[in-house]
Task: structure prediction
Amino acid sequence: MPAALLAALAALQVANPCPDPAQALRCPDLVMGVPTHLSLDRKRDGRRFLRMENKIVNIGTGPAELFARRSGPLEMAGEQVIGDAAGGRRRFATGAEIYYTSVPTRGGDYWKLDQAARFELWTQSPDGRLAALARVGPKLRYCLRDLRRLRGDIVGAPPGRVFGACNQTAAKQEVTLGTSVGWADVYPASYPGNVIDVTGLQGCFVVRHVADPQDHLLESNEANNVSVRVVRLPYKSGAQGCPAFAP
Result:
């Protein structure tokens, strides 16, 4: 995205209004599901990748909704849409960027939210705490769709999908992305980029998944976006024999 446009978007960003009860906003609350379906992917050239399923779940009172307009050849600038108790809908510039992203093994190209998540691998101290960042996974972009209804117990969770699959039209000038209350955008362990390169690593580590690491989505709670799982490398299923994670 051009530097001038980025600067303009940054200038338009506002402080998070979601925690202010006077605004009566129905904001999303994104949490990252604990990494599941772990496996070690061994390549013929000797590289080793830790694969895992991941999911961003919305447990807030309103959808995580973005309306995006074309800002470049393969780019769009997004505004977050948040409803209020009176039925109004407000837009907020948050710096969110949507890119036309190639996923050739999954049906072609899609408009996806950039920096939607971050996968980290940390060394683990003997007391269970994070020690040092060792590796970062390549997957950064999500459709932000309603794929799986995981929290139907939450008030306001729709019974059916509201936000469908990502748009695949390259010439599109506007798109809407979103994840409803109680729903999740889920990516299986086999999905491209759902890996962390663990080649040559041995010992106890912590897999750390972070939703919205750059705060491009306004939320009612920004303190619950992280999930972790302790693993021993080279990875094998079953008991890991590592210290319990200590925050």
